[in-house]
Amino acid sequence: MGRHSRCLQLLLALPWCVQASVFAEAEDKRRGKHETYTQNAVCRQNNCINPLFPGLNDLPRLEQLVWQCSTTHEVRKHMNFCKEAVRYHPALPSPNKTAQLVSDLVKAQDNAAASMFFYHLSGMGYEPWEHQSPHLSSNKCVQDVWKMVCFTYFPKAEAGCKVGQATPYVRPCMTCCQNYLESCSVECCDESPQCSFAHSMTTDAGTSIVQKGYVDAVAPSLLCTGLGSSGYRTSISFLGLMVMAAHGLLQLQ
Fold it and tell me: Which of 17, 54, 104, 245 might form a disulfide with 7, Cβ 3.0–4.6 angstroms?
């Protein structure tokens, strides 16, 4: 069954599926221009797909946009797909000409992340519609793809930046890239996949640019977007401390 047929069957259950399928076709056409990780056409040991990392080819475009600071509280209430991944103050693209609602800006980025998630999982042989809630998935690879796309399309705002102020695009930390390589068991034939790199590539407009990888820093860091493993366990840890404290008080009584 083709990609479009499966998307149509699951249109009600997965609203971003059709959009992602169209997006995937456009990406397929760009593969010849953007193959930056291998020169060996038969090199596909395990999950060595193009692009190698989810959202990689969008990084140069995202860096060219003008971004403005926002807050976790303001952004997460409009999120769906990335809500559980963005636990930091993110930046949003600034409208080019006319003013736009924050909700519209957030939903556009959220849909872009969901589309890239769908496309990348499809490339690795997964059935994306089986992972509509990746934050609840027991599959570590699926979770790391989800985190990478959310960190890519919702970059962290600069520390101390006020709402509405301009802020540069902050790439994801190398940590999330390394986690992805490990959990998805990515292996390529002619070279070991690297998270920090610089490759020459040609854009759709025919311009030659240098495609850079991820920031050589461990999350959480002021230099890059991402969370440490503790970032996803904060609420659980706090609850555990409260339970321990309550238990101690009961013993003292």
Answer: 17
Calculate ∠ Cα 48-111-197, nearest 5°. Answer: 35
Q: Which residues contact 58 (CB under 8 A, 6 or more apart)?
A: 112, 116, 152, 153
In sequence order, the 6+-apart residues with CB closer than 8 A to the CB of 30 are 57, 204
C-beta separation of 246 from 195 below 8 A = no
- Measured at the CA of 47, the angle between CA 147 and CA 150, to 5 degrees, comes to 15
The pTM of the full predicted model, rounded to 2 decimals, is 0.74
Residues 6 or more apart whose Cβ sits within 8 Å of residue 151:
85, 172, 173, 176, 225, 226
Q: Is a pLDDT exceeding 60 seen at residue 13?
A: no
CA distance 246 to 236: 15
pLDDT tens digit string along 148-163?
Answer: 999 999 999 999 999 9
pLDDT single digits (tens) 129-140? 999 999 999 999
Of the candidates 71, 88, 91, the one whose C-alpha atom is nearest the C-alpha of residue 226 is 88
Contact yes or no for 82/113 (Cβ under 8 A):
yes
Give dist(CA 139, CA 147) in Å, integer: 13
Token pair for 79: 């999120």
Average pLDDT over residues 108-125: 97
pLDDT of residue 225: 98
Decide: residue 197, CB within 10 A, 0-12 exposed, 13-18 middle, 19+ buried: middle
- Pairing mode, strands 198-202 and 208-212: antiparallel
89 vs 76: CA distance, rounded Å: 10
DSSP conformation letters of 78-107: T-STTTTT--S-BEEEPPSSS---HHHHHH
